[in-house]
Automatic annotation (TrEMBL):
Molecular function via GO: ATP binding; protein homodimerization activity; RNA binding; tyrosine-tRNA ligase activity
Source species of the chain: Buchnera aphidicola
Name of the gene encoding the protein in the UniProt record: tyrS
Keywords: Aminoacyl-tRNA synthetase, ATP-binding, Cytoplasm, Ligase, Nucleotide-binding, Protein biosynthesis, RNA-binding
UniProt function note: Catalyzes the attachment of tyrosine to tRNA(Tyr) in a two-step reaction: tyrosine is first activated by ATP to form Tyr-AMP and then transferred to the acceptor end of tRNA(Tyr).
Catalysed reactions, semicolon-separated: tRNA(Tyr) + L-tyrosine + ATP = L-tyrosyl-tRNA(Tyr) + AMP + diphosphate + H(+)
EC number: 6.1.1.1
Listed GO CC annotations: cytosol
Name of the protein in question: Tyrosine--tRNA ligase
Family of the protein in this entry: Belongs to the class-I aminoacyl-tRNA synthetase family. TyrS type 1 subfamily.
Nucleotide-binding recorded as keyword: yes
UniProt entry tagged with the keyword Repeat: no
Binding site for ATP: 238
Name of the top EC class for this enzyme: ligase
Amino acid sequence: MSEFNLINILRNRGLISHITNEDNLNKLIQNNSISLYCGFDPTEESLHIGHLLPLITLKRFQIEGHKPIVLIGGATSLIGDPSFKKKERDLNHINIINIWTEKISKQIAYFLDFNCGQNSAVLLNNNTWFKEMNILSFLREVGKYFSINTMINRSAVKQRISRPDQGISFTEFSYTLLQAYDFFILHKRYQVYLQIGGADQWGNISSGMHLINRKMKKEVYGLTVPLLTQSNGIKFGKTELGTIWLDANKTSPYKFYQFWMNIDDSNIYYFLKIFTFVSILEIQKREQQKYIKNQIINDKIFLAKNITRLVHGEEKLLAVERITEFLFFKKIHQIQKSDLEQLKQDGIPSINISMIKDLQEALVLSSLATSRTQAKKMISANSISINTKKIKQNHLFENKDKLFGKFTLLSRGKKNHCLLCW
């Protein structure tokens, strides 16, 4: 089997957690252009970085000539996937689901090509078929093919059943049947032969393969990508500071970029393999040179740039670089008003100011100093800057201190900043 075979490429990049009947799947995708799908339930208004791996995997299949289908779970999101969740999700109103569906659909459209001929991506919503089905039809057409004994022994279900304080409702228990029916419908109507998802979706994907085999006597396939967790065991994509969203209005491109700059050094080259399209040879070369002075930080910058460009585009990446130059290298002349608004969003601490006496008061209000006395000492020690310019004595703010008439960057040393918003 060629090392350039798509499945081998995915495996070499660490993008495969589970796969069914690999030999048959390899033959199928080598000799045919297939349709494959991945589902995303709109349980929030944005995807987060935990969704990047399945999106990138869909893109890799499309690059190789296959047709990706993205299924938005307009119906299944009304139920909620219990897979490895500690407690039952709150049920959202269908009007909210519809709004979130529209937002997520726009995000997904950024990653895939929806206008490239025969393998153009397709966006579907499973509410299309579920809204036409009643409960009796569902039980007859789907429920009869599943054993409660098998379903109850799925690890995701067992985990919840073993928690007497939570348990699992029949609503969530039925979720795997809904996803199985999705795969069945997509195979029947769109000739989908492969479903991909995160590793936590393996049970649901297996249910779909089982249903298609029982009802149509056909072999279809499943492939899952790793479900990444951080060193503290928290699911990747969520941090102590909150989820890292793909929506620039929820997580600014600057904060997104800084997230990758602050990952553990041990993850750099693995993340380059799974989250970027940089060649394996270049990644290996960089890893071999990691002990060269400054190479680790250069490779982190390389990683952060690649992923930020992938998610937010070149223009937003340039804005991030201007902000970085402004904060860390004092290149104030390049900064734009929109960059400072991005900083205010979630880049650095900020406070709204209407009137203020002097620099000492500003330092206290911004929590860069605990008192006017400490602020005075900091100023005397030459550790305070206004808009990257060192201040050697107490200062009364003037209009020239307000960038674009609105912002003032207050800094203590090189790493502690606060944006004053007038």
